[in-house]
Amino acid sequence: MTNPRLGARRVLPVLCLAMLAALAVAGCGGSASGAADGKISAVGAENEYANVIEQIGGKYVDVSAVLSDPNTDPHSFEASVSVAQQVARADVVVQNGLGYDGWMEKIESASASDSRDVIDAQELLGLPDSTPNPHLWYKPATMPAVARQLAADFSELQPQHKAYFEANLAKFEASLRPWLNGLKEFSTKFPGAAVATTEPVADYLLEAAGIENLTPFTMQADVMNDADPAPQAVALQESFFTEGKADAFVYNQQVTDSITEKFLGAAAANGVPVVGVYETMPAGYTYQRWMEAELTALEEAVAHGKSTEAL
User: What is the DSSP letter of 98?
Assistant: First the structure.
């Protein structure tokens, strides 16, 4: 599944990945899966998914994340032999889908396993490949669906611990309520709130909070795909700052370029607060605390004109 909007920067050569996976299988003795200590072996393609795996699996699951550094550009990721080894021996894999982590599918295909459970967020949500925004972890429905599937898969793999996994699921779902309630309350507290953006990283969160995104998606897609936005689109974006239409500027804190710097300068010159959002979960956070922090940053910007460039 490759989203054509993501362009070539997210896609790695199939041959290269096949070679990595072949090396991984060889390194694992041609086999299969499972942690050496009897725990379930699980991999999250991105660390936000790995964190949910950890919360549901607890002490009975060994978890690793492929993408975990918030100081790097996830779009430029290149799979290594160690990544292929992680995936080759995993009992459970969680990935985003929509072409965002398409390299996972290639590694999985090259190190096929009948016993490996692959949880794909796109498939869980029933989203078509044409879905333009791949940043599904900002969508309120995503992680509850992933968590429920994890609890079911873990319970099937280790039925003796089913009650434990289900209790962790209930705890996780309860811990999401402050964020979900905050999203519902935002539009009531700040009716008419509007922001300008660079990439569509947090668009699902903005939509859930009732925040108008002034930036046309065509320009967001250009920035996401490393294409130069049209001059008219740049002028329109800058008008959101000069004409006081944007209450905040929301940008991808992990991936900045000259066009982002230009907009940051325009926002600063016109007293528009900025909010940095992430594709990879920052260190020291759980998934739910991360989402709450992003929502709080938006509220501080809209209500008090306060910038939060980094969490």
Answer: T
